[in-house]
Amino acid sequence: MVEFNLEIGLKGIAQMLVAPDNMAERFYSPMPPSFATPMLISLMDNAAIEAVKKFLPPGYITVATSIIIKHLAPTPEGMTVTAQAELTEVFKNRLTFFVSAYDEIEKVGEGQVQRYIVDLENFSEKVLEKKKKEENPL
């Protein structure tokens, strides 16, 4: 078994400029002219990835399994959203992060992200096996 030895308190940051390709109307219309919730979730998850990726052994990545987010306030086009993640718990290969996001004015989101450390090659093989099953059903 591989030892990961990740320290509680590791932090990551991800940023995104609000533009037409990441606004709410991209996903459904009509919507207000603001940063889309799916993009906020993705940004917060990316911050969690950034917190630990350079501390993982070669060949290992993390994959998201649970994301619980509150989108607290809208962010208009032209502003930047900055997401922050802090590693708060490690249990075997399960990582839990507190995540938050801010624009230039206020906090716009907060929540929790859980990611698992996996061997990229083994995980990819399982995905490809599933694809083969879909291509060749019983």
How would you explain this protein's 3D organization?
By secondary structure, the chain is an alpha+beta fold. The longest helix is centred in the first third of the chain and has 16 residues, at 37-52. The chain has helices at 37-52, 120-135, and strands at residues 11-17, 60-71, 80-91, 94-102, 107-119. The protein has 2 helices and 5 strands. It is flat.
The CATH superfamily name is Hotdog Thioesterase
Task: Tell me the distance between the termini.
Answer: 35 Å
- What is the strand arrangement across the widest sheet? 1-3-4-5-2
**Secondary-structure arrangement, i.e. CATH architecture:** Roll
- What is the CATH level 1 assignment? Alpha Beta
H/E element sequence: EHEEEEH
Catalogue the unreliable spans: none
What structural class should be given to the helix and strand makeup? alpha+beta
Q: Can you count the helices?
A: 2
CATH topology: Thiol Ester Dehydrase, Chain A
Determine the strand fraction and express it as a percent band.
35-45%
Please summarize the sheet with the most strands: 5 strands, antiparallel
Provide the helix percentage. 10-25%
Extended strand count = 5
Shape verdict: flat
Number of domains: 1
The average pLDDT value, as a whole number, equals 95
Work out the radius of gyration.
Answer: 17 Å
